[in-house]
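Bench notes, bay 3.
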Amino acid sequence: MLLYTVSASAMTWYKYSLSFALHRLAQSGTGVLSIPQALSSALEDAGRRVFDHESYFNEMYAGVHPPHPDPLFVYNGYLTALTNLLKLVSHPAHRHSHSHTYMEIKGHLQSILLIVHSRCTSQIPLGLAKDREWHLFLADFAKVLKP
């Protein structure tokens, strides 16, 4: 279930967003390869938090909000939005029979954060919706729960 509303103006970037990938991943975990409810909820919650952040910085780049003075604003926002999910997938007590899945999610999120960090220091505005490497990592991330 989508925990946020995607406006028509957001559709240009949403399909290339981490929030969309998180939502797809949470939804795919309710099918054939069942994941713990705590993980599914954490993915959806992270997706909502990431969507709020992505909406803000995309509106900022569109001129709706003033530019942020911190060049790492986008990276720091992603990191904050993903903190609870990263804690969950990093905690050994929550892994049990799904340790491979948890480690895959953690590894993909760390790689995605590295891409965002490197882009934040080299591109303003941050054009993730047009970044080929970003698209490839998100597509790969969305397949973590595929059998």
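Next record in the batch:
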Amino acid sequence: MPFLYKLLFAKAMEKGMEDLETQNNDADDETPEDDGGLADLPIIDEATPVTSSTSSLDEAIVPKDPVWLTQRNVSEYDGYALAKSKDPLVRKRLRAETIARTTCAMVAYAANRRHNASQLSNSLMFLAAGVTKRVREYLNHIGLCSSRKTTHAALQSLGKEAEINIKSKFKTENSPILPPSICYDNLDFQQNVHMASVGHASMMFHGT
């Protein structure tokens, strides 16, 4: 799998590197050649290795993928906006990484259905977004998301875990100053159906 990832990443980055080299060559042609063009050249020591323009980018300038934010690294984005990088090469690199990672996840899922971390994440997002059943079945067929049954099982598991976390946070010994006081009064929400049919329509729920 690492070989496949590197192969896909290199293929996706090939066009971006060619565009970068073209831009650099155009910029060099427009630079005035005073003193034979040697005045602005840096002094390179013989022991210093010369890296090519196709070397990998510095990891510090590549922004992190917001999809992988956790409770530990979310504080790094406190006060900052998650925006796209202005550097086209950085955007090209992130796109190539996403393509290679997604393709490898599809191949791993096709070989073993237990390798479904990416598919479960996509399935939960598709379920929350209201993607139709027919579209989900097609995405599951090509290995981009899990089945509907697996998605609901994962949703129930996440709900139980969230319930345990809330109960532990609001225990008396954990919150002696601020006791739990969560109450939703007159809660109204609608279960919207995108494709209405007989026995399959939108419903409104009321409760406290």
